[in-house]
Amino acid sequence: MNNERHILSAFDRDLEAVQAMVVKMGGMVESAIHDAASALDARDDELAEAVRRRDKAIDALEHQINDEAARLIALRAPRATDLRMVLSIIKISASLERVGDYAKNIAKRSHVLGDLPAIPGSGMALRRMSAAVETMMKDALDSYIQRDVALAEDVRQRDLEVDQMYNALFREFLTHMMEDARNITACMHLHFIAKNIERMGDHATGIAEQVIYLATGGLPEDTRPKGESVPRMTTEGA
Amino acid sequence: MNNERHILSAFDRDLEAVQAMVVKMGGMVESAIHDAASALDARDDELAEAVRRRDKAIDALEHQINDEAARLIALRAPRATDLRMVLSIIKISASLERVGDYAKNIAKRSHVLGDLPAIPGSGMALRRMSAAVETMMKDALDSYIQRDVALAEDVRQRDLEVDQMYNALFREFLTHMMEDARNITACMHLHFIAKNIERMGDHATGIAEQVIYLATGGLPEDTRPKGESVPRMTTEGA
After folding, report:
1. Which of A184, A196, A199 to mutate to test binding with chain B, by most B CBs within 10 Å of its CB?
2. CA A112, CA A230: separation in Å to the nearest integer?
3. Which chain B residue lies closest to A235 (C-alpha atoms)?
4. Is the pLDDT of residue B8 over 80?
5. What percent of chain B is predicted at pLDDT more than 70?
6. Which of A139, A148, B53, B159 yields a CA-CA distance of 20 to 30 A from A42?
7. For residue B237, what pLDDT is reported?
8. Do B112 and A232 touch (CB under 8 A)?
9. Predicted confidence band at B213 (pLDDT cuts at 50, 70, 90)?
10. Residue A227, SS3?
11. Does B177 touch chain A (CB under 8 A)?
């Protein structure tokens, strides 16, 4: 069985190398979330431009991770849980790529917002929301690397808070639009940004769910509202 | 080499079986797109409810496809292009699952829209847009099954038209909102729906790009605007 042991450890080494790329990609995506929110809040066009430019490197890294994952499968022929670990990397990197796109989109919009009336409190609220998502993303990746199901479960629960932040912001934007038609355009942009941040949270949750699935072979009955919530879009009450 | 030939054809048989599941999933997703748009246009709550209910079967099929793909890899140990074909199935089914979610979301919103003022012309425009996306999705999957790069390239180009439809609709909604604040809530919902349809188009394009990537090992230089476009959000001119 020495031979098998040897093969296993070669697989582990290779897996670690690909996982290191995923961690690197995760770090780049976390920076993108952070900087997109900062650029928006500070109306910093240069930083927004940097976020847009850096998205190319994130996309390139996804391709590289896919190639490495395929190489690993072809070379080491992993089975059962090992194979599932590698396959989940493909899904996780696709999620990260998507989140990078959302950050790029926020950066694009922040430039347009520069010419529009400011909506009081929105910058702060969006920063808070994106900080929550940034931490979720970090913890989701940590839970994957460390196979930490409790942490993954925690990420999954925190998505509910992000959904609530989004719903509260939505009602605020609606109020501003109803009060003054000159706020409509700015609120439409800000609402898109809020929605993009909420979707980032969904992707972090998706990564956390991969971790739970890998560890337990299934997901708890769907207690978490899945996909985007549909606010009733009234300004009264919750 | 008889043995290798035997292994190859067993792989082909297994691949075809998984691809048949992808085609089935594709058909379910196309129906979801179609029915979500019909339910919206006809304010048909029962049909909308059916779309929401059927999304569970789409999600279940994605899990099944992932399991089968993993089984195929473990059992047949495909390499090079064969392996890439199988790995692309995982990505394609993830895209289809996402599109199913968007259709479900449209169905959720169509119920809310029942209580709101009608926005002239919006039902027709959204149906046209979703019909375009439905065909894109069908052709993207056909291009995958038939390894038809020309068809995949065609799908990719058609996404530009969908983006244009979205931009035109966006400006229309903005006009209605500015003209009468009572339209704001309905337009916010309709705009979300338009955005969801546009995102479905992005996913169809993603599948088409997988086909091109599988066949050529790369993508043409990115001439297509990637991700969501950011309309300047003015009502004047284009």
Report:
1. A184
2. 26
3. B185
4. no
5. 88
6. A139
7. 30
8. yes
9. confident
10. coil
11. yes
| Residue B109 to chain A, least CA–CA distance (Å) | 7
Three-state SS sequence of B113-173: HCCCCCCCCHHHHHHHHHHHHHHHHHHHHHHHHCCCHHHHHHHHHHHHHHHHHHHHHHHHH
The answer to whether B214 contacts chain A (CB < 8 Å) is no
CB environment A153-167: b (16+ within 10 A), e (fewer): bebbebbeebbebbb
pLDDT in the model for residue B111: 82
Among the partner-chain residues B90, B104, B227, the one whose CB lies closest to the CB of A227 is B104
Q: Which of chain B's residues have a Cβ under 8 Å away from the Cβ of A108?
A: 230
Query: Angle A80-113/A2-42 helices, nearest 10 degrees?
Result: 10
Query: 């339209």: which residue's tokens?
Result: B183
Residue environment code for A195-207, b if the CB has 16+ CB neighbours within 10 A, otherwise e: bbbbbbbbbbbbb
Of the candidates B204, B209, B202, which has an alpha carbon nearest to the alpha carbon of residue B153?
B209
Contact B210, B88 (CB under 8 A): yes
Domain ranges of chain B: 2-216
What secondary structure does DSSP assign to A15-58, as a single string?
HHHHHHHHHHHHHHHHHHHHHHHHHHHHT-HHHHHHHHHHHHHH
For B237, half-sphere exposure in the C-beta direction (CA atoms, 13 angstrom radius) is 1
Mean pLDDT of the B36-60 span: 94
Q: What is the ipTM of this complex?
A: 0.80
The architecture in CATH of the region B2-216 reads Up-down Bundle (1.20)
Contact (CB<8Å) B70/A90: no
**Contact (Cβ atoms closer than 8 angstroms) between residue B25 and residue B62:** yes
Question: What are the pLDDT digits (tens) for A178-226?
Answer: 999 999 999 999 998 999 999 999 999 999 999 998 888 766 555 454 4
Structure tokens that stand for A157 in this block: 């629960």
**What is the share, in percent, of chain B residues with pLDDT greater than 90?**
74
Q: Given pLDDT bands bounded at 50, 70 and 90, which one contains residue A6?
A: low
Distance of residue B74 Cα from the nearest chain A Cα, in angstroms = 5
> What is the C-alpha to C-alpha distance for residues B116 and B176, in angstroms, rounded to an integer?
14
